[in-house]
Automatic annotation (TrEMBL):
N-acetyltransferase domain location: 3-138
Single GO MF annotation: acyltransferase activity, transferring groups other than amino-acyl groups
Gene3D superfamilies, A to Z: 3.40.630.30
Name of protein: N-acetyltransferase
Signal peptide range in chain numbering: none
Length: 138
């Protein structure tokens, strides 16, 4: 198995959706909302990908200013390739693209807490989420 890692190479919405379906993230992402998925791919400014024979098998999709904060929105690895160090490598390459003081921030699914702790992330209970459906100020 020869895995090739790339930074900011084009990824189609179909490739992204297929990878999410074949990883645990498909359950928590709007994979049936084509416009949303296309926007997620188009508007990310840092994507590190893993490929095997031209097939997308892993992605670290982020939004960042490269100096202070990087939000790692999606870290997904195809089920058949999990537990081979691909997710860790995607995260390491992502960090390598950032400035020395840039924090890598993510929101983990409860089942993934031990995985991120193993990678060296520290739990921070100060994350807040405001869903769009909620009326601000009411």
């Amino acid at each position: 198995m020869s895995i090739k890692y790339e930074v900011n190479v084009p990824v189609t919405s179909d490739q992204f959706i297929e990878l999410l379906r074949e990883s645990t993230l498909g359950e928590r992402r709007p994979i049936d909302d084509r416009d949303c998925m296309e926007g997620m791919v188009k508007n990310s400014n840092l994507m590190v990908t893993a490929w095997n024979d031209g097939k997308l098998i892993g992605i670290a999709r982020s939004m960042t200013d490269f100096h202070y904060a990087c939000y790692l929105s999606d870290l997904a690895v195809h089920r058949e390739y999990q537990k081979k160090g691909i997710g860790k490598r995607l995260q390491i390459i992502t960090q390598g693209e950032l400035g020395p003081k840039c924090k890598l921030i993510l929101v983990a699914a409860p089942a993934a807490n031990s995985y991120y702790e193993h990678l060296g992330f520290k739990n921070n209970p100060r994350c807040w989420v405001l869903d769009r459906e909620q009326n601000i100020g009411s």
